[in-house]
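Subject: Protocadherin alpha-C1 structure
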Amino acid sequence: TANGQVVYSITEETEHGASVGNIAKDLGIDAATLSARKFRMITGSSKQYFNINASTGALSVNEPIDREQLCELKSACLLNYELMLENPLELYRMEFKVLDINDNSPSFPLSEYHINVPEFLPPGARFILPNAQDHDEGTNSVQNYTLSSDEHFHLEMQTHGDGSKYPELVLKKALDREQQVTHRLVLTAKDGGDPPKSGDVPVIVTVLDTNDNAPEFEHSVYRASILENSPSGTLVVQVHATDLDEGPNGEIRYSFSNTTSADLQRMFLIHPQTGEVTVNGVLAIQRPLLEILIEARDNGAFGMSSTAKLLVEITDVNNHGPEITIASLSSPVPEDAIPGTVIALLSILDKDPGKNGKVTCQIPDNLPFQLKPSLENYYSLVTSELLDRELISGYNITIIATDLGSPPITTQKTLWVQISDVNDNPPVFSADTFDVFVEENNPLGAFLYQVSASDPDMGENGRVSYILRNSTVAGNALASLLSVSLANGSIYAKCAFDFEQLRSFYFQVEAKDNGSPALSAAITVNVYISDQNDNAPAILYPTSQNGSVAVEVVPRLADEDYLVTKVVADDEDNAQNAWLSYHLVHSSDSTLFRLGPHSGELRTTRSMRSTDFLKHKVVVVVQDHGDPPLSSTVTVGILLADTLPQALPDFDDSVEPPPLLNATNIYLIVSLACVSCIFVVFLLFLAVVRLCRCQTCCCSGCCCPADEYEKYCYRVHMLPSSHLPLDMLEVTGVGKLTHTYLYRASVGLG
């Protein structure tokens, strides 16, 4: 392990589940954090050959590796992986060297080979034998060849100009076609594995009787260079071989050797007569140097052949644009992310080699982000400034990658990075204070006002709830007077306000968001209670006790405009609801008293007279100016006296009679006259009865003596009131009379 890179070696075909190592231990990572840090293995391979245990960090084989399938003919087979961890973001490179095992036997391209050998060839004639192919590498590849025993042939190894070896069949004894037309040999290829593996192919040698010269190329190795984007039909090279034979035996046909891979034979064509090698289709291959074997065979009855090697160098052109791959993207990004926070990890590759594969990368300058090179072919997208979601909630970031080819090729990829909200804005009210006006005697639950605060944050961070801050109003807890809707800030009354008890107060409503931690703001609400006419005037003076009438004593000889009393009243309401006026609604003598409508002063309208009644009763109404108006009544008893009596008279049930000649007095006088007449008639009746009895006695001879007559014979007289010795009669009519009428009767002798 070095510089964030760890290298493992593993043999191919290792079974599933086999341990490779412990990535956490090897890289010095806490294995317990692998799962929480969302580890990922990134590879360009289509298969996932390895697994990491999230709990222990153990690295094991997920799928057996076939080195020959994965790396073909490469001498070194490497698998590159990147281990990505988040929180914080880290990237490690892992390299797996796949070691070859001897799991492939040498094989030949054809199931059997035929060689035509003229019978006149002398010993020492050589014939090229096919090369065996072994997909294993190193000592596990083909190491030697053997040939089955034959008296006419033996095997020798030869070396190409590039150092590669190939087998040749060498004639060691002259052939006699008449004795044996066909020789069946077995060519065996062996590798150097332990244990070694081998492959056989039959080699059938047919003895011919013609054409004893093989074609010869001008060069044993041809070299050519073409552009990788060369179109179909482009000439690569023209090979040329000569044959010393004449006629058909000297006519040469060119073809690709059977040992040339099928892929190369599809990419190139060779003209059989001219030897021109041309491009056939797209050069879809990543190797910069291609090796092709070309065979020249004459047209003799027993055609002879020779081979030459064609090395084709593929010159790269800038035909691949940079490929931008998003290895990791953290979106959304919190708006409070500090500058330098890694947002994304980008992999930018260009398949072209050399300068054409080198890439520069950039993003627009007007964004709060920047690209920083990371590992090879990787860039980190990081924040360069502070973010504010309330200003910009997301960014389209265009990644521009340009290679250094000529002309350069540019690739763009756009990332959408969303900015997530954090609770960095408290609720805001539109004003610092609000004034609310409410009438007293409001119903319970009456809506008073709705406060509203805005929060530019989103989601729960921007959802505002409202509460009342704890306080007291006139000694009462605010919660007993008001309530506020948690959701919309509507304020409701929990009791009926009384202007006379509480005219104004203030409180604070707190708006709090649902972020973490929560932010809040407060507003002061001033409540002004407006008055209603809900209080009747209160009579302060004169006052009555136990329901009795208040009594005022006035001198009997009081002058005009004498102040009898002053009605004092108060109204707890306000403004015009408390403006009072005084009205005299009843008086036992309407001509005697008057009431000041604004002052409440009860005064005499004239001087008192001796004939005025001693007791008077007045009723005063005190009325406010509300709508509707309310009033209170007070009854005042007035006693005409020069001194305060020991016991005040009762004013509750008695009322001083009106003047003498009103309707009631006339009725009483008539009643009294009637009673008096009846009494006189009765007296006359008694006198007549007495007289009749006396006359009856005289007629019968029984006369009364003279001195007795006066006792029994009488006259009735209405005497003047100055004669007091007679009986006094008080007559009471309907109701009570304040004066006594005296009737006197005088009885005298007739």
